[in-house]
Design a protein that fits this description.
With 374 residues, the chain is an alpha/beta fold. The protein has two domains: 2-128, Four Helix Bundle (Hemerythrin (Met), subunit A); 140-367, 3-Layer(aba) Sandwich (Rossmann fold). Helices cover 40% and strands 18% of the residues. The protein has a seven-stranded mixed sheet, with helices on both faces. Helix 3 packs antiparallel against helix 4. It is globular and about 65 Å long. The relative contact order is 0.12.
């Protein structure tokens, strides 16, 4: 997608061919800073500290983290250490494990002398595959938007509500939930996005709004609790969100607050779609509420907020009284019964086991393969 008219990915290789560069998303929207990752530890820290975030981008970063590790030591022991170090960074997003498993499968049969080249090749493939997948998600989701636009009166826009940031910043490019939005905009469809602020990290207000603005898409930032009101008054045509993990039965784990949006959508007959690449499907689990580990994050994300003062300074302030307890659950699970459809690279699917397994039989088979020892 575009930053000031220049096509930009969220992660890329520098001209030296081995340094990994990524947009530091902690600094947006007030500063545009590129971080350079030069070893596996820095890649792990980038994931853990949310310099990079979003399930697909976490996976791509982890893949490059393995490649960086192989530059320093391409032994079997080093591969195992890198795998374990990276997989421990974030517990909820399944793309992390998927990408690391892909790297292990690709590198285990390769001689250590050839592993660096093989690692960078597979990591680049994972990044490019993500872009192609998201483009396909956009094409399938575009049809949903086009159908709504066709029912509109001349001059009326299609209003989409989204939650958190499932945009190109959360992937390598295009985004998941935003891919249909960008394709509709590029096609000339009148479209408007309500972006939930998404407390506590404000990814909607700081990231989704930033990238939509840079691409020229009309949007409005709203407090998290406004979506239900908008739906009651017919101001939302459809919801599209992303996800960090989808179970084999179609339950959806996404940023905290998604479940409440799905409930409001159901009560007001607003279609609720989830956009996801197939690596986000975890065919090993079935009950999302019981089986998906929910990350609990630092209390400072709730107690503190960072912003730009009116005189231009960037400051962090505390908004919660000293001594108050804080709970900071990063995700919640939306049961499949509340999901209208899953927008994947192979079409819009019903959120159930039969539909997912039929669309991605190779993924089901892959889950059953043992990982090579390393």
């Amino acid at each position: 997608m575009k930053v000031d008219g220049i096509h930009t990915r969220s992660i890329w290789l520098e001209p030296d061919g081995w340094t990994v560069a990524a947009i530091d998303q902690r600094r947006l929207p007030h500063e545009y800073v590129v971080a350079r990752l030069t070893n596996c530890d820095r890649a792990a820290d980038a994931i853990r500290a949310m310099l990079v975030r979003g399930a697909p981008l976490i996976g791509a970063t982890a893949a490059y983290g393995v490649a960086l590790a192989m530059r320093e030591d391409a032994s079997d022991a080093a591969l195992a250490i890198a795998y374990n170090k990276l997989i421990a960074t974030r517990p909820t997003a399944i793309n992390l494990k998927w990408a690391l498993d892909e790297m292990r499968r690709a590198l285990a049969p390769v001689k250590p002398a050839d592993r660096v080249a093989a690692a960078y090749q597979r990591a680049a493939e994972i990044a490019d595959e993500d872009v192609a997948i998201n483009q396909a998600i956009g094409a399938h989701g575009l049809k949903l938007i086009e159908a709504i636009a066709a029912r509109k009166k001349p001059g009326e826009r299609v209003n989409v509500l989204t939650h958190c940031n499932a945009g190109w910043l959360a992937t390598v490019d295009w985004g998941t939930a935003t891919a249909p939005i960008y394709q509709a905009f590029d096609k000339g469809i009148a479209i408007h996005v309500y972006a939930d602020e998404t407390r506590p990290r404000n990814q909607g207000a700081s990231l989704t709004a930033w990238e939509l603005g840079h691409h020229g898409v009309d949007h409005t930032v709203i407090p998290d609790n406004t979506g239900g009101h908008l739906m009651q008054h017919g101001m939302v045509d459809l919801c599209i969100v992303g996800t960090d993990r989808v179970t084999a039965d179609g339950d959806v784990c996404n940023k905290i607050g998604t479940y409440l949006k799905a409930l409001a959508a159901r009560d007001n007959n607003v279609p609720f779609y989830v956009a996801l690449p197939s690596p986000t499907i975890d065919f090993t689990i079935h009950d999302g509420v019981k089986e998906i580990p929910i990350e609990q994050r630092d209390a400072a994300e709730v107690t503190d907020m960072t912003g730009r003062t009116h005189d231009g300074r960037i400051e962090t302030v505390r908004i919660v009284p000293q001594g108050s307890k804080v709970a900071n659950y990063g995700f919640d699970v939306t049961p499949s019964r509340l999901v209208t459809g899953l927008i994947t690279e192979r079409g819009v699917l019903k959120p159930d086991r039969a539909s997912l397994a039929a669309a991605f039989p190779e993924r089901v088979a892959r889950e059953q393969e043992p990982l090579p020892a390393s």
